[in-house]
Amino acid sequence: MDSELNSLEDSTVFGWFDWVSIILYFLSLCIIAIKVARNQEEHVKSGRSKHETEAYFLAEKSVPWWAVGASLFASNIGTEHFIGLAGNSAREGISVGFFEIGAIPCVLFLGFFFLPVYMNSNLMTSPDYLCKRYNKACRSILVCLSLLLYVFTKVSVTLYAGQLIMSELSNFNGLLSILILVVGTAVYTVMGGLGAVVYTEALQTIVLIVGGFVVLGFALKNTGNIDELRNYFKDQNNRQYFHLFRPIDDHDYPWTGFVFGFYSVAPWYWGIDQVIVQRAMAAKDILHGQYGTVVAAFLK
Length: 300
What we know:
The chain has 300 residues and is an all-alpha fold.
């Protein structure tokens, strides 16, 4: 199986079909952003949207449940998953999958606990709740802390992992790859606001899921079936590879870390983090937002 794995390295260069697919994909994103931006502008001018700020940051609170669910899923999945999580899973085993499976109750908690409070309070952002419940200082502290976390733990990692993929597949240097990612994302985000982001992420969800299954098919074709994989890792003396929960003395993923460590952080990410919460707050109403979280939990 080692020779079959090594043979995959020869196919990691973009061909003409790959470039055409990428160009069509980005054109689709731009078309969606332009359409959403025009619709929002027309609604503001005609009076159907009361506030231009609400139209931009909350997509006029008009997002249906399926788009909410797809957006929640896509906003959580990034290049760090395809590089870091997938690579770690290949090395350590399926226990890494708990980061996705374990998030399911947290997503539902957002929909059925946090979201009704946010939407009934008529908030523009999740930090606004702290301002309304406590004071402006609390909101400012959360905003500053969130920005620092975004820059140093989320955006930087996502861009680094993204440029690794682009550099490997297209022979672009790292700086150029990062610039392409930043500019491409900024274009459709600035043009259409949250509405453009939500609907482009719905398209991205389709691409992620279909592409993931395609990659899975090619991987199984080149490495053999599940039984061959089991035998391979048994030969490598890695008997915990196919166990989701590992013993408490496991050096990397003990079950105690998942149960107590993961759930001390995940509720903040899924219930307070602005990137996630904003998608749910853009729903048509609370029911659409709750249905959206159910869809996101199913996709997880």
